[in-house]
Amino acid sequence: MMKISTLLLSCMGLFPYLSAAQSDSLPLYRLGLVLVEAPSARVDTVQRISIQHLEYYHRQTLSEALNLLPGIYQANIGARNESVVWIRGFDLRQVPVFVDGIPVYVPFDGYVDMGRFTTFDLAEIQVAKGGSSVLYGPNTLGGAINIVTRKPLRPFEANGAFGIITAGRQAHLNAGGQWGKFYVQGSISHLQRDSFPLPKTFAPTRFEDGSRRANAWNEDNKINAKIGWQPAVGHEYSLAYIRQKGKKGNPLYAGADPQNNQFARPRYWHWPRWDKESWYFIGRTPIGEYSYLKTRLFYDAFDNELRSYDDATYTTQNRPFAFTSIYDDHTWGGSLEYGIEKWPRHFLKVAAHYKRDVHEEYTPTTPRVRMADHNASFGIEDVVQLGPLQLVAGLSYSQRHSLEATYYNPQRREIVPFPSNRNDALNGQFGVTWAVANATRLFASLAHKTRFPTLKDRYSFRLGAAVPNPYLRPERAWNAEVGYEGQIVTTLQARMALFYSRLSDVIVLVDNAVFDEVTNRRLAQQQNAGDAVFYGAEAELSYRGSSKWHAGVQYSFIRRRNLSNPNLFFTDVPEHKTGLWAAYFLRPKIWLTLWGEYNSQRYSTTYGTKSGAFAVVHAKGHIQVWRFLAFEAGVFNLLDRNYALVEGFPEPGRNGFIRLVFNY
Fold it and tell me: pTM, whole model, 2 decimals?
């Protein structure tokens, strides 16, 4: 009945201007935006993924959603079962994650497990790449990711879904309303999976029998509540609360690399707690006719527990390598943003940020140790419009200072302080956009960016294999980009970009760097010993043949050169990524999407182990069965391909879902 002759991938939100054009009809919480935007000018090259595209391609977690865009590569930290992405070769320490403009990365290591962040309560995801605005604050070496939540548009609205997935279940509900000057938005979600099936071609290994993936379970529950007040035109104030409660297993290594320390010594790990709690206030106050003040205040708490067991029964902790590690982290801070458009052709913004990170860790047999940093940043940005040219120039100064840092010395049985340390950095950027025609523009940018070393970078002993280095300097990068986006013909739209990044003072783990007199051996140390070059290209085309079908293609290329040590390889990012996608609408309420993705091989270790190239195909169908009710079903990895994002940690074979969806 439905004929589809084209494979596909990615998303209808591949083009930032397409998503932006629809944003007024989305349940978008505009206080949560971080934009280089003025009433008379827009020069940001942020790419956006709307909630419609998350629904079309059934993206339930943040990493799955971001993989829809070119230049972004989904990856796994297999040893910790963490789902992450890389943006043009930069990892999540170098590309921080924000929720409504509030930083949410874990204070200790700067990472965030994107597999724990579900998408059910989102309105839009924004991605700013190398030339991201200085208004985001510090540490945006390779860009920034901003997750924008929902805001109700009508007196009452609700949507949700309930269904089953292979070896699990999923349910969520969003409800809210706007009445005069007040609005309320609430969300609740549940995502649980006991395991996942491995492909039929997977060959069993010593620690994996090849049927259902062992210890590959997870459960994530989330509530999100927001209240808001809009007392007058341009005024808006809201208070939000988010609570995430998660837990997960850690699948065993199932590869064939004898140099991998898990090949002979598997990690019997799981996390009984991966919890996060957030409070934040955002307000916008007009000041006179031409300016405004935007305020953000936040408090985040992270409560995580890791347990290592003796064996695959996951019941006892008697062997020397078994342990329980508890992290009790929190962070608080805020920002002020002042914007003014009083002068012709100028829109000036000034922003100040402050963030205090606190990390505490302990075990059942050792005392609590504490580490704390403060981070401050000040930035100024000006948008200028000169006919068809739009210019943006930004400058920022950031500072990090240690407040305290201690570790437990088991030989002396005492808590010992680390020396105090600090970093500062001056960053700048310049961008230009030329509106060639109504729907076509050329853009270019150049930015100097830095990233401060995290608490873990400076203080971790790496289970006795390394010596801390409190005096690490910031990583630095020059990021350049040129690009085009526009409408080639009425039915064909395109976006293309070339990028180049030159990195210096990159923090790398140097083997045998320091002689330790206590152990009488040479140990590794984190040092500013890396220089690198990243460069590549991105291209995407979207074709709308008629109201019944549309299709598209995207391609990403990246090459990363380690200038300091060519024998150490950059991991987790394939040189080539290609996607095809298509959607067919039999009727407005009956549609089918089909998408596919190809990734070339990628390095999984710095010494050269690779995970192979792969191509996967997915499909989803939607049938409206009543005015507010629809039935959906889908299949992932339709051809049951055996593939891995990191060597030794296979991805799911053929799996699927069915669910009921309602929108009111």
Answer: 0.94
Please write down the HEC assignment for all residues of 380-412.
EEEEEEECCEEEEEEEEEEEEEEEEEEEEECCC
DSSP state of 197: B
| Nearest of 507, 509, 505 to residue 465 by alpha carbon | 509
Residue 105: give its domain's CATH number.
2.40.170.20
Helix (H, G, I), strand (E, B) or coil at 457: helix
Does 7 reside within a domain? no
Amino acid residing at 189:
S
**Number of compact structural domains in the chain:** 1
The share of the chain scoring above pLDDT 70, in percent, equals 95
Contact 659, 269 (CB under 8 A): no
565 to 53, 130, 530: CA distances (angstroms): 41, 24, 8
Domain that holds residue 205: 12-663
> Given the DSSP bridges, would you call strands 590-599 and 602-603 parallel, antiparallel or unpaired?
unpaired
Is the C-alpha dihedral spanning 19, 22, 24, 28 positive or negative?
A: negative
Maximum Cα–Cα distance across the chain:
75
Residue 462 in 3-state DSSP? coil
10-residue stretch averages of pLDDT, the chain, 664 residues long: 32 33 60 68 74 90 95 90 95 95 91 93 93 92 95 95 96 97 97 96 92 95 97 96 96 94 92 96 96 97 96 94 95 96 90 97 95 97 92 96 94 93 96 88 95 96 88 97 91 95 94 81 90 97 86 96 92 96 88 96 94 97 94 97 96 97 94
**Structure confidence at residue 11 (pLDDT):** 33
pLDDT digits (tens, 9 = 90+) for 295-330: 999 999 999 999 999 999 999 999 999 999 999 999
The reported pLDDT for the residue numbered 44 is 60
Task: Report yes or no on 439 lying in a domain.
Answer: yes
Contact, 193 vs 118, CB < 8 A?
Answer: no
From CA 21, how far away is CA 117, in angstroms rounded? 26
Helix (H) or strand (E) holding 108: none
Task: Report yes or no: 41 and 383 within 8 Å, Cβ to Cβ.
Answer: yes
**In angstroms, rounded to a whole number, what is the distance separating the alpha carbons of residues 43 and 30?**
18
Residue 461, phi-psi category: left (phi > 0), alpha (psi -120 to 50), beta (remainder)? alpha
The answer to whether residue 154 sits within a structural domain is yes
Please check whether residue 499 is in contact with residue 480, taking contact to mean a CB–CB distance below 8 angstroms. yes
> What are 86's two structure tokens?
């890389």
Token pair 């309105």 is found at 123
Whole-number Å distance between alpha carbons of 167 and 180: 45
- For residue 217, which of 198, 193, 235, 182 has the smallest C-alpha distance? 193
Task: Give the C-alpha separation, 481 to 431, whole Å.
Answer: 9
In a domain, 1, yes or no: no
**CA dist., res. 36 & res. 53, Å (int):** 24
